[in-house]
Amino acid sequence: MKHRTTTAAGRALYKLRQQTVEPVFGIIKEAMKFRRFSMRGHAKASTEWNLVCLAYNLKRLHILGAKLQAA
After folding, report:
1. I need a surface site. Which of 30, 56, 67, 70 has the fewest CB within 10 A?
2. Confidence of residue 15 (pLDDT cuts 50, 70, 90)
3. Environment class of residue 58 by beta-carbon count within 10 Å: exposed (0-12), middle (13-18) or buried (19+)?
């Protein structure tokens, strides 16, 4: 990893990772404590993941809405 970030181009490319969805997965895993699915089967796990995503998006909308009202 060190050899990838020694050049300016490598650092710029690595910095782009912050703009992707990786922080979202980190928030879901750490802040929301979602580490594993409790349901078995693809359909049930998919439904569970949709609920997790819905919870994340609602939380995000709530935070952004509070910021907009304060402004």
Report:
1. 70
2. confident
3. exposed
71: Cα separation from own chain's centroid: 26
pLDDT band at 17 (very low <50, low <70, confident <90, very high): confident
The three-state secondary structure class of 1 is coil
Taking alpha carbons only, the member of 57, 53, 61 closest to residue 34 is 53
User: Which residues contact residue 49 at a Cβ distance below 8 angstroms, ignoring those fewer than 6 apart?
Assistant: 37
- Tell me: pLDDT of 64 over 80: yes
Q: How many residues are given for the chain?
A: 71
Q: Output the DSSP codes for 14-66.
A: HHGGGGSSHHHHHHHHHTS---S-SS-SHHHHHHHHHHHHHHHHHHHHHHHHH
